[in-house]
Specification:
alpha/beta, seven-stranded mixed beta sheet, 35% strand, 251 residues
Length: 251
């Protein structure tokens, strides 16, 4: 997802969107969010940057009312074919396109909170999310801890894998670090298709924000930081923010 801009090809190229779930098949990270939905007793959930809809459909099948929003049409096409998709309200748009919904909980899983690379993009995203969440509701999202410098392990040697894809054969993929400029990290996903060796690439840039920076931004948007947790599937690498939507004090 990329608010206010064209989504990265890995999400919006139909040739890559259909591969996403096959190549990123371990979604144990979503168990954290399913547990938080239960913990907060949320009956309505907005999934910002829902991608191929794995979490949205999973929650919907459990009886949760779910709205999934994403600017990548190809990813939404994949999402709409999944079991439970008919129970989800899908919005083709970025975070700023989400209307006031009065949901109990909004979530941003995976890299979603980091794709807003400018301060303006990030402010627009969390302000719109605040308008979508009822007062007393919640925003929960994760972001990589910049102190752990995860990008130093984004190389072909560390990320290379090959997956057999039905009707396509072997697809090899890896990540290449392109550039690091302070808080901005740019990288490239490479996909190589057998047997002819053709390649498709997808370039991305994400922003690493420190805990205190995120806390200040949440306060400005009308949230009160409740807690910051570790991500059990990636201990020590992620910051999981739980923020409470507070009543506005302005008239």
């Amino acid at each position: 997802m990329n608010d206010g801009a064209v989504p990265d090809p890995i999400f919006d190229d139909p040739r890559l969107a259909v591969l996403y779930d096959l190549l990123d098949d371990d979604r144990s990270d979503l168990d954290v969010y399913a547990a938080i939905v239960d913990e907060l007793n949320a009956s309505t959930v907005l999934d910002v940057g829902c991608g191929t809809g794995t979490l949205a459909c999973m929650l919907a099948r459990r009886g949760v009312e779910v709205i999934g929003a994403d600017p990548a049409a190809a990813s939404l096409d994949v999402a709409r074919c999944k079991p439970g998709a008919e129970l989800v309200r899908w919005i083709h748009g970025d975070a700023s396109d989400v209307p006031p919904l009065g949901v109990d909980l909004a979530v941003m899983t995976g890299n979603v909170a980091q794709v807003f690379v400018t301060d303006l993009e990030w402010q627009r995203a969390i302000n719109a999310t605040r308008r979508a969440v009822r007062s007393g509701g919640w925003l929960v999202f994760e972001t990589r801890d910049p102190a752990r410098r995860a990008w130093e392990r984004w190389s072909r040697e560390d990320t290379f894998r090959t997956v057999e894809v039905p009707e396509l054969g072997a697809v090899s993929t890896w990540t290449e670090l392109v550039d690091v400029r302070e808080a901005l990290v740019s990288f490239r996903h490479v996909f190589r298709f057998a047997p002819n060796g053709s390649e498709i690439t997808s370039d991305s840039t994400i922003r690493f924000r420190a805990r205190d920076e995120v806390a200040a931004d949440l306060k400005d948007a009308g949230f009160r930081l409740h807690s910051v947790r570790d991500a059990p599937d990636r201990p020590g690498m992620e910051l999981v923010f739980l923020a409470l939507a507070v009543e506005s004090t302005t008239s």
